[in-house]
């Protein structure tokens, strides 16, 4: 098939506006499936209509108006079958609202309501992720299934279960107010970071970085920050952009993982570093610090260093200390231990890392970091065992290869 | 719509007056706010009997359906607008601080 300029106009509308249109439709009809079906109807009509008549000035408005009519058609078909007086009343109200002129109006942005609904903490994190990618990012079930390496049927079930729970338990389609907002925002930010992180440090597969999920995470961060310029939202966006600035340096030509200490820093994207750092400074200026702003600050300290040795490890150790106070976790302690091993001595780092050894027994990065600390403290045998443990726990083949190298280096040195 | 809040807690065997009072206050609050439909506390699981009928044959078993750390000790039926409102109500149930409250919508027939 030959793609026409009309098709390109449609593709652009789909990429940029489908999430927004869907958010409005779900708000109006309170039915995820109906909204998605109606949107697909409208896209199919646009595919034919725009080729025939050329794309309209306001493509998104056109799609919304048509989708709304198709949704009403779909309800009408199911209502006549059952002849429900209550539903007929709803229908006539919807029909009254259906105004031709609306196609010229800007679409109200209801994506905030949609993202808070998709990331409701009553839904499992993996369901939140799937639903967010499906509705806000417009990814197909098949694409999401491939990104997370699960069968399409499994992913389809996950998404449909989540939609069912939203409707059965009446999860409200709204942005929470007051104190509740801060609590619920954490869940939204975690969901977006989970999407980005699966792209950035893929837990499965043969590539350590999956750029598609990184880009979707950043796109969601940008949408959220535009609609809600909260300093923690900016902190998350800054963190993702700063991490992403190092994407090209994180793997070699064969796709093998490279740790930050060994990066070719010329491959770091300076534009992204500038964008992420400036955004972080704006957020920190509001004096409402939070865990994502601190993590972004850590990433920014790495970004400004010429190499691993010149990195301001004392500042990083201090930032991890602040993070540990806000969100205490053994993983944060481990990272602090690594920073201290550079800022002070390897022995001081190893001593702190040992305090979380029991809790992190099954955590692959602990054994990799522990091995490095042991090696630097001159404990080669213990280091070799830690590398073997890390290799056994790793599920990513590129990471395994990196760890094998480190283990081999260890035996040639001793 | 109606939600059921199922209260799971470790069985301690005795009901201290403070807990009793706290539940009384919660129930009064729910009535005052128009959420209360019904609610009861249950006798301990030592009084439970499980019944099954297979191939027409009835059999009884002493004890609760499942042996878990926390046991169903009571419930409320609450009238709420949506899940968020139901969760806000359930968060005030005294047992939430020591055990687990399971919130489920009642199937409307």
How is this structure best described in words?
- Chain A is mainly α and 414 residues long.
- Chain A is built from 19 helices and no strands.
- Chain A has a domain at 5-107.
- The radius of gyration of chain A is 25 Å and the shape is elongated.
- Chain A starts with a helix and ends with a helix.
- With 109 residues, chain B is of the alpha+beta class.
- Chain B has one domain: Dimeric alpha+beta barrel (Alpha-Beta Plaits).
- In chain B, 22% of the residues lie in helices and 38% in strands.
- Chain B has two helices and six strands.
- Chain B has helices at 17-32, 83-90, and strands at 2-9, 36-41, 49-54, 57-62, 71-79, 100-105.
- In chain B, strands 2-5-1-6 form a four-stranded antiparallel sheet, with helices on one face. A two-stranded antiparallel ribbon of chain B has the order 3-4.
- In chain B, β3 (49-54) and β4 (57-62) form a beta hairpin.
- Chain B is globular and about 45 Å long.
- In chain B, 17% of the residues are buried.
- At the A-B interface, loops of A face α2 of B.
Helix-strand layout with pairing:
The complex is a heterodimer of chains A (414) and B (109).
Chain A: H1 5-29, H2 32-53, H3 59-82, H4 85-97, H5 111-118, H6 125-135, H7 141-147, H8 152-168, H9 179-200, H10 211-227, H11 231-244, H12 270-284, H13 291-304, H14 313-326, H15 330-343, H16 346-354, H17 364-376, H18 380-393, H19 397-413
Helix pairs in contact in A: 1-2, 1-3, 1-5, 2-3, 3-4, 6-8, 6-9, 7-8, 9-10, 9-11, 10-11, 11-12, 11-13, 12-13, 13-14, 14-15, 15-16, 16-17, 17-18, 18-19
Chain B: E1 2-9, H1 17-32, E2 36-41, E3 49-54, E4 57-62, E5 71-79, H2 83-90, E6 100-105
Antiparallel strand pairs in B: 1-5, 1-6, 2-5, 3-4
Major beta sheet summary of chain B: 4 strands, antiparallel
Largest sheet of chain A: none
User: What is the level 1 CATH name of chain B?
Assistant: Alpha Beta
CATH homologous superfamily heading of chain B: Dimeric alpha+beta barrel
Number of domains of chain B: 1
Tell me the CATH topology of chain B.
Alpha-Beta Plaits
Distance between the termini of chain A: 63 Å
Q: What's the alpha carbon Rg of chain B, rounded to whole Å? A: 16 Å
Q: Beta-strand percentage of chain A?
A: under 5%
Structural class, from helix and strand content of chain B?
alpha+beta
Assembly state: heterodimer
Overall pLDDT level of chain A: 89
Please provide the count of β strands of chain B.
Answer: 6
Spatial strand arrangement across the major sheet of chain B: 2-5-1-6
Query: Most extensive interface: pair and counts?
Result: A-B, 9 and 9 residues
């Amino acid at each position: 098939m030959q793609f026409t300029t009309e098709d390109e106009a449609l593709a652009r509308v789909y990429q940029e506006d489908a999430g927004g249109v869907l958010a409005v439709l779900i708000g109006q009809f309170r039915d995820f499936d109906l909204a998605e079906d109606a949107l697909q109807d409208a896209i199919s009509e646009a595919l034919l209509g725009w080729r025939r008549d050329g794309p309209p000035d306001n493509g998104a408005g056109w799609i919304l108006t048509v989708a709304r009519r198709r949704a009403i058609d779909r309800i009408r078909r199911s209502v006549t079958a059952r002849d429900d007086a209550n539903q007929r009343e709803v229908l006539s109200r919807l029909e009254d609202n259906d105004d031709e002129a609306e196609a010229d109006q800007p679409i109200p942005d209801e994506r905030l309501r949609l993202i808070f609904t998709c990331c409701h903490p009553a839904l499992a994190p993996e369901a939140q992720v799937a639903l967010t990618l499906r509705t806000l990012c417009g990814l197909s079930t098949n694409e999401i299934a491939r990104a997370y390496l699960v069968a399409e049927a499994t992913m389809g079930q996950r998404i449909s279960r989540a939609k069912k729970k939203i409707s059965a338990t009446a999860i409200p389609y709204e942005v929470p107010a007051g104190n509740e907002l801060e609590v619920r925002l954490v869940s939204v930010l975690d969901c977006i970071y989970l999407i980005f992180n699966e792209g950035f440090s893929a837990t499965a597969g043969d590539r350590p970085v999956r750029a598609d999920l990184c880009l979707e995470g950043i796109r969601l961060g940008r949408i959220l920050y535009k609609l809600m310029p909260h300093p923690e939202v900016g902190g998350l966006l800054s963190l993702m952009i700063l991490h992403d600035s190092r994407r090209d340096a994180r793997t070699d030509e064969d796709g093998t993982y490279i740790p930050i200490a060994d990066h070719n820093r010329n491959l770091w994207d300076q534009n992204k570093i500038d964008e992420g750092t400036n955004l972080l400074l704006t957020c920190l200026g509001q004096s409402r610090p939070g865990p994502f702003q601190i993590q972004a600050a850590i990433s920014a300290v790495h970004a400004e260093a010429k190499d691993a040795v010149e990195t301001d490890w004392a500042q990083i150790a201090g930032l991890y200390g602040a993070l540990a106070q806000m969100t205490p976790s053994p993983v944060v302690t481990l990272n602090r231990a690594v920073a201290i091993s550079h800022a002070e001595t390897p022995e001081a780092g190893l001593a702190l890392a040992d305090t979380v050894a029991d809790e992190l027994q099954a955590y692959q990065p602990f054994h990799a970091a522990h091995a490095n600390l042991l090696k630097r403290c001159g404990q080669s045998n213990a280091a070799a065992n830690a590398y073997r443990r890390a290799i056994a726990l790793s599920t990513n083949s590129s990471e395994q290869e990196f760890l094998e190298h480190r283990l081999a280096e260890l035996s040639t040195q001793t | 719509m109606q939600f059921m809040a199922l209260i799971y807690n470790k069985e301690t065997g005795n009901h201290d007056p403070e807990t009793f009072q706290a539940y009384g206050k919660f129930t009064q609050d729910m009535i005052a706010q128009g959420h209360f439909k019904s609610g009861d506390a249950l006798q301990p699981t030592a009084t439970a009997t499980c019944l099954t009928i297979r191939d027409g044959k009835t059999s009884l078993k002493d004890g609760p359906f499942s042996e878990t750390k926390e046991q169903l000790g009571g419930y409320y039926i609450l009238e709420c607008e949506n899940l968020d409102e139901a969760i806000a109500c359930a968060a005030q149930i005294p047992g939430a601080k020591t055990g687990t409250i399971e919130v489920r919508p009642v199937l409307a027939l």
